[in-house]
Structure formats: C-alpha cells, structure tokens
C-alpha cells in the first residue's frame, strides 16, 4: 500500500518535507472519517493557541486504530473506500497522506509554566493548551490535532426543507382559505407580542424615571428584560431595586522631592499574541511544508 506522493518525498537525516494541498483526496477523507471520534483514538478537546477548541490524540493511538480488527472489517466493505493496512510502513504512508490533505496538525501540549510564559494566555483546568508544532514526529507520544469535521448527515434534509419552504411561500395565493386564515391569525398574534414587548419596555422606563425622584433607590420592572439570558429568565424576577455603584478610591501618585510626580514605565513584552484569525489562517493555508521526523522506539 502506498499513499499518493508518500514515496516521492525527499528523505534527509530521517526527515521529510511534505507539501500540503487544499484539495482533499477521497481516500484521505474516508480514513479520517473512520478515525475521527473513534473510541480507540481516545481523542480529547484542547485549546489551540489558548483560543480555539481542537480535538487531539496521540500517535500511538493512531497506530492502534489503523491496525485494529474494526478497521479490517470496515476495509472489507468496498463502500467504505478504505485500503488495507498491515504494517508500520503502511501507517506512515497514511500518516503522510493525512498531513498532505491538511486533515491533522502536529501540536505540542504545554505545561502550566510554559503557558504562563506567553503573554495573554491563561491555563485552563478543563482543556489542555496546545501549540502548533513545526515538526511532525512519528513518536508514539507525539500529539496531533484534527482539522477535519464529519459532514452533517442532515444537510440534505435541511436543504430539501428550505426549498419546500420557499415554494410554499411562492405558492401562497394558491393556498386554501383556511390556511390563509390561520397564517393571518398567527401573524396578528406575533405582532401583538412584539407590541406588548415594546409597551413593557416603555412602561418600565417611565417607572424607572419616576423612581429616581420618588424612591431612595431606582426601581426596575423586569430588571433582566434586556439581559443575555433565556426568555423565561428575562421576566424573572418581576421587579428589583438597583444597587448604587461603589466609588473606587483614587490613589495619589508619589511625588519627588521637587514636587514632580513619579511615573512608572512598563516595558512591553516582545512576544506577540496569536489571535483566532491567525490560527485559522495558519491551519488552512493553501500551500505549506511540514517537516516529518522519524523517531526510533
């Protein structure tokens, strides 16, 4: 078994330069579809560059999944589009194929001290922080992240429903009278709810303005009406009193003997913060080379 392009790589001191491509081959997608969220892989969720979620796994789990009996059974079915894998060399060829098609990404798992060294990064107790690695080592304990997502099986159903809805609106003049009457009642009910919402907002504002003069504390009707919460939570509690904000005490800056204030200068760090957009650009670059390194066990 040989993956496309895997035997044409230049090997120098155990390292390969693997060019990547944005066009994914059907074989690579089929293998990724089998491996993604496979129980043998034991993949977990981490934070790539301390910002975006990414599923990652170890290389030794990758090997076990491809040499498992489950893969052999799936491979026997031609509909799955899988190739036979019998040894480590076949696994390495598949590994190179997935990197070429930008389906997996070599990452490094950072420790607490390493995370604190990066400006703006904060350790997460639930998700480990990962950083993109320049070399993809074939080490059993090396980590790799998924750049692959399984296609939504309901996308076709959603498309059919959307088209049916469009045609239903277009053919509204041909609807029976009872359906037209039902739509009219529903639209009037929706407009009534919208009008009631705006009326409630105006009334609560008037009550709030009156309470500024009449009561020691401002009074709110439905204090959570415009908060970021659920529909039911927006109307709970029914009323509430606004607590006054505490004023922060201003500290006086120390002065020199001649009366001039002492200013403190902060030296900025030379480290740059990686944003989510930069992560996506790095992970989905059209053409780049990944260095593969073989590690003897």
Automatic annotation (TrEMBL):
It comes from the Eukaryota. Keywords: Endoplasmic reticulum, Membrane, Protein transport, Translocation, Transmembrane, Transmembrane helix, Transport. One of its GO terms (biological process) is post-translational protein targeting to membrane, translocation. It is found in: Endoplasmic reticulum membrane. InterPro entries: Sec62, Sec62_asco. GO terms for cellular component: Sec62/Sec63 complex; translocon complex. Signal peptide: none annotated. Its main location: endoplasmic reticulum. The chain crosses the membrane at residues 155-176, 182-215. Residues 8-17 have a biased composition (Low complexity). Residues 255-268 have a biased composition (Basic and acidic residues). It holds the Pfam family Sec62. Residues 269-285 have a biased composition (Polar residues). GO terms for molecular function: protein transmembrane transporter activity. Residues 1-22, 243-297 are annotated as: Disordered. It is a multi-pass membrane protein. Belongs to the SEC62 family. This is Translocation protein SEC62. It comes from Candida tropicalis (strain ATCC MYA-3404 / T1) (Yeast).
